[in-house]
Design a protein that fits this description.
Radius of gyration: 16 Å
Structural class: mainly beta
Strand content: 35-45%
Strand order of the largest sheet: 1-2-3-10-5-8
Number of helices: 1
Helix content: under 10%
Shape: globular
Order of helices and strands: EEHEEEEEEEEEEE
């Protein structure tokens, strides 16, 4: 495999989150490095958080391990245990099945970047710690439900 040229990779913005949650991550973008390299067993994404940006809602994965390494700037990791400041070279690991909701916030005035490496389970369930929301991803399709399993329907006017 040849060297991956970051400058030529598309930048993904937006979210799979349903309304109104999609607006929460407006300051996040990413590049799919693993896909660009043809990887199939795990994903590698370079995430950029603009000042004030949020990586995701706090969540944890049922079937997928997740690893994060900050490459540039400063951000705040928020977990069930509290907040931890993270800078270049700082790493965090989130084993599958461990209900420790996490996300990253950029509270600085400069962009922050970090690598996210995660396994690609055939079926994944993520639970959002601070919301009555879960997502199941299977065959590339995301289905959102409440934590009791009932379907999530976006509020009128947010669809």
């Amino acid at each position: 495999m040849a060297k991956i040229d970051l400058a030529s990779l598309p930048v993904k913005t937006g979210s799979i989150y349903p309304a109104p949650y999609d607006a929460l991550v407006a300051g996040r973008s990413s590049q799919r490095l693993g896909d660009a390299g043809g990887l199939t067993q795990f994903g590698v994404n370079l995430v950029t958080l603009a000042p004030g940006g949020l990586s995701s809602m706090r969540h944890w994965h049922l079937a997928e391990d997740e690893f994060v390494m900050v490459t540039e700037g400063q951000c705040t990791m928020v977990t069930d245990a509290g907040e931890t400041e993270m800078g270049p070279g700082d790493c965090a690991a989130f084993p599958a099945g461990r209900p420790d909701g996490h996300h990253f916030i950029n509270r600085t005035d400069r962009p922050a970047r970090f690598l996210v490496v995660g396994s690609k389970a055939p079926r994944e369930v993520a639970t959002y710690s601070d919301e009555d929301l879960m997502v199941t991803v299977e065959a590339g399709r995301a289905t959102f439900t409440h934590k009791d399993g009932t379907p999530y329907i976006a509020p009128k006017g947010d669809q």
